[in-house]
Design goal:
Helix content is 35%, strand content 14%. The chain has helices spanning 42-52, 74-82, 97-109, 125-137, 152-160, 180-185, 209-222, 284-296, 302-305, 308-313, 318-322, 327-340, 370-381, 407-428, and strands at residues 58-59, 120-123, 143-148, 164-171, 177-178, 191-197, 225-229, 253-259, 272-278, 345-346, 355-356, 359-360, 383-384, 386-387, 399-402. Helix 4 (125-137) crosses helix 8 (284-296) and helix 12 packs parallel to helix 14 (407-428). 44% of the residues are buried.
């Protein structure tokens, strides 16, 4: 007897079997169509091929301190090893109590009011928590204000959550400070939040209190969440100090991100945290969603959590590195002086973080495709950078330089960049 087919079934409802030996082509999700992360993009893949061929590449593309001999503090490593017997079980989905309590104490030192242990979620680095924060907030069509240039994970996370990143201008003429008029002009009925990266990656800008207060006023007026990426808050030069934006108000919801990767050179530990503060009463449902997403991944990796309390409470060796005679400060100064000595290259000297974001004068360097420009530099001079458009900058006239290599390697790398740019000027007949 033939099986009875429902009268409501159509030809389209019947699944046709694939012919034996025939495979359906698998395409990536449509959600990835507008996602890019050029810090680890196609030019890096070419660099890896060159390394496989035996060529030595000087990599100035990624802020990974351990690669350049900037090691995790010894006391952090020792504490992780001593406590590894505790690392074989799941923790609370928000993280172990002791590191969360130490993070709570850190918020007090940053003058962020009203934070309890329960307001802190530990994650597998800040990257995971950024994705969680966007997934928990956004519906399809929602918008988030993201700086331009940005750390591209923010734009990617907004997009993957079904939202749209609207990029507000950070103005090079003002030392890369956010243009508050442009920020407010980008707000629509669908805007849900504002991302603030301070200290800034890729520009190295450090925002003054007045700028932060202006951002808060915009968020307050429009009922927006402020997402504060403060992962470089101890990497400060020239006696500068950092102000956490969440310390300046209690009537706006703040979600603040920080971790061990940069201040403590512990990128591989994957230990970051997210702090909820300010106006939480009207965000109960959102906070419930964050807790749900934290529970779904069970917990953050435990060995990384074991380093947090010692990191925050121990000797702050980053202070030595950023001091006038410290390694990071010397490397920043060297990179800045050598880059700005190249004809047609200008740069705002970074006050913080690990990067410079130089500009190439477009009348001297008429670049149309900056990714191709960076690839040509790699092929000719074996130096790996990231192009400015990889940080969602609007024109192909910037690139990011990581100044983590020692002074000798940094000097050699920038000498090669200078030689490449000299040849570029000759090819294009540019006069300086």
């Amino acid at each position: 007897m033939q099986p009875i087919q429902s009268s409501s079934a159509t030809q389209q409802d019947i699944v046709q079997p694939i012919n034996p030996g025939q495979q359906k082509e698998l395409a990536k999700s449509n959600k990835l169509a507008n996602v890019c992360y050029d810090i680890r993009g196609p030019v890096l893949q070419r660099a890896r091929q060159m390394e496989d061929e035996g060529q030595r590449i000087i990599k100035l593309n990624i802020g990974n301190p351990g690669v350049f001999g900037l090691d995790v503090p010894e006391e952090m490593m020792q504490d992780v090893m001593r406590n590894m017997s505790k690392a074989g079980v799941y923790t609370d989905s928000k993280g172990l109590f002791e590191p969360r309590k130490s993070i709570m104490h850190y918020t007090q030192s940053k003058h962020i009011a009203g934070v309890t242990v329960d307001d802190i979620i530990i994650g597998n680095g800040v990257s995971e928590l950024i994705v969680i924060a966007m997934q928990g907030l956004l519906n399809n069509g929602d918008q988030v204000l993201v700086p331009m240039p940005d750390y591209p994970l923010w734009t990617a996370a907004v997009t993957l959550a079904g939202g749209t990143a609207r990029h507000y201008l950070c103005d090079e003429e003002t030392g890369w400070l956010p243009d508050l008029k442009d920020m407010e002009a980008k707000i629509t009925a669908n805007t849900r939040g504002i991302v603030v990266i301070n200290p800034n990656n890729p520009t190295g800008a450090l925002y003054p209190r007045e700028t932060l207060e202006g951002i808060i006023e915009i968020a307050r007026h429009h009922g927006l969440v402020i997402f504060a990426d403060e992962i470089y808050d101890k990497v400060l030069f020239d006696g500068n100090t950092h102000t956490s934006i969440a310390s300046l108000a209690d009537d706006v919801l703040f979600v603040t991100f920080n971790g061990l990767s940069k201040n403590y050179r512990a990128c591989g530990y994957r230990a970051g945290w997210m702090i909820l503060s300010g106006e939480k009463k009207h965000a109960k449902d959102y906070i419930e969603g964050l807790n749900m997403l934290a529970s779904m991944r069970l917990c953050a990796n435990v060995p990384g959590q074991l380093a947090i309390q010692t990191a925050l409470g121990g000797y702050q060796s980053i202070d030595d590195l950023v001091a006038p005679e410290g390694r990071l400060c010397k490397q920043r100064d060297t990179a800045y002086e050598l880059l700005t000595a190249i004809p047609g290259v200008t740069c705002t000297k970074p006050a913080a973080a690990m990067y410079l974001f130089p500009k190439l004068d477009p009348t001297i360097y008429p670049i149309k495709d900056d990714q191709q420009f960076i690839l040509d530099l790699l092929l000719e001079e074996k130096v790996l950078l990231v192009q400015g458009t990889g940080f969602n900058w609007r024109t192909p006239d910037h690139f990011r330089v990581v100044f983590l290599p020692n002074v000798d390697d940094l000097t050699e790398a920038i000498h090669r960049i200078a030689r490449f740019l000299e040849n570029y000027r000759k090819k294009h007949g540019a006069k300086v």
